[in-house]
Amino acid sequence: MNDTSRVIEIMLGGQPSRIVLGPLAALELSRFIPQPPPVYLVDEAVARLQPAWLAALQSGCDPDRSGTLVLAGGESGKQLERLAHIYGWLAERGLPRDGTVVGIGGGALLDVAGFAAATWQRGVGWVSVPTTLLAMIDAAIGGKTGINAAGLKNQVGAFHPASGVMVDCGFLVSLPRTGWRDGLAEMIKAAVIGDTLLFDDLEAAGPQLRALFGAGSGDAGDAVPGVLGALPWRDWVARAVTVKADVVRRDFLEQGPRRALNLGHTLGHALESWRAGTPEPLSHGQAVAIGMAVVFRIAVERGQCPLLVAVRVNELLDACGLPTRCAAPPVPELERLLSADKKRRDGRVRWVLPRGLGQVDLDGDVAIADLLRWLD
Ligand SMILES: NC(=O)c1ccc[n+]([C@@H]2O[C@H](COP(=O)([O-])OP(=O)(O)OC[C@H]3O[C@@H](n4cnc5c(N)ncnc54)[C@H](O)[C@@H]3O)[C@@H](O)[C@H]2O)c1
Ligand SMILES: [Zn+2]
User: Fold this and answer.
1) 91 CA to middle of ligand 2, Å?
2) Same structural domain for residues 40 and 126?
């Protein structure tokens, strides 16, 4: 390990999963890859925006035994057709049962690449290199892989923990503002459920966050000049990773405490699915931000959460340029989307409702009428 790397080791489903955090962590990739040589599934944005990386990877590859497949990143790649394409390529490469897939990219690429690794020959080795903020603190940690199907988010998937997750904030230099905002939504969620000091620190940095990411800060699709040096990202990323790692190590298969990570996600997933494919899609982070803001409002209304906490959360989301409300889907559509939610058990959807910072109720009930009061 280089001097400034830090390793968090967790056991997931009886398997060790090592999360390496630090500058140039990704250069330590080779330590996690046993023979035979791995295959690389690389997000096109990384290949395009950080070509030196791709070149470094490929220079270490034996083209006869390894290989790199560059795939378009983003949500539209989390589908059966993409998976079929990957399987075809793995067959061409002849990836054996003891082979390894390395995924390098955003959460969507990692979800589909991880699912390919989970299912190819009933499961081959899997190592991930997250390259967006959201992927670093959330998607890459905890072993969930999957794709969207039947018009529903993450409907088909598998638990398949990566043996190594290389978290290197250097990749974030090219991340567009929209990607930062999405990651910040999950960082705020992590702070709310598991690290109130991180919440305080984010809040204290509100003016800088607003200048970098708030409304009017610049084009959503542009990289954010000077962002890496402006705030203590490595520290914040490590703390958000720690929150997620602590939750998933206690409850890998999502029987109980892991459901806390779904704060804002029950409504968020419904809104994300509803707006997908429309002229105004909601990204995962935007949908989760609205989902969180709405459950905070509901919890305050019920007297279960202090108003001040909800106001602080709302303010922080707003400082990060995240939406806190949107139009409501038609009621039958909202019912359909919510009833398909995988957190539904015993015939009901279990909502994660906040009680304050660091405290959530994992088994709440929310009626459609409650939601409609807080959607436009
Ligand atoms: N498996 C899990 O536990 C889990 C948890 C949370 C989220 N997710 C999933 O993660 C996905 C969202 O991930 P995301 O926010 O990373 O979005 P994403 O993967 O869709 O990536 C967003 C865009 O950023 C590009 N990109 C990737 N790295 C980049 C870089 N360094 N610089 C510039 N552009 C880059 C991608 O090509 C893509 O166009 C969703 O599908 C969500 O369901 C999974
Ligand atoms: Zn999420």
Assistant:
1) 32
2) yes
Q: Same domain for 167 and 181?
A: no
Specify the DSSP element, H or E, that contains 247.
Answer: helix 233-250
Judge if 184 and 167 occupy the same domain: no
- pLDDT for res 54: 75
> Is 301 considered catalytic here?
no
Supply the CATH number for residue 261's domain. 1.20.1090.10
For residue 228, give every residue at least 6 positions away whose Cβ sits within 8 Å of its Cβ, in sequence order, or none. Answer: 169, 170, 172, 173
Percent share of the chain, pLDDT over 70 = 93
Ligand nearest to the CA of 137: 1
Tell me how many domains the chain contains.
2
pLDDT of 269 over the 80 cut? yes
Same domain, 187 and 90: no
Active-site entry in 78, 82, 144, 189:
144
| 258 is an active site residue | yes
Whether 314 sits among the annotated catalytic residues: the reply is no
Residue-wise pLDDT tens digits, 311-370: 999 999 999 999 999 999 999 999 999 987 655 566 788 999 999 999 999 999 999 999
Task: Give the burial class of 230: count Cβ atoms within 10 A of its Cβ; 0-12 exposed, 13-18 middle, 19 or more buried.
Answer: middle
Spatial distance between the Cα atoms of 241 and 319, rounded to a whole number of angstroms:
22
How much is the pLDDT for 344? 59
Q: Which residue, judged by its Cα, is nearest atom 7 of ligand 1?
A: 139
pLDDT at 200: 98
Asked if the structure places residue 250 within a domain, the reply is no
262, 272, 275, 312: the catalytic one is: 262
Same domain, 182 and 64: no
Average pLDDT over residues 34-50: 89
Integer angstrom CA distances of residue 109 from 20, 116, 314 = 20, 11, 30
For residue 94, what are the domain limits?
Answer: 6-173
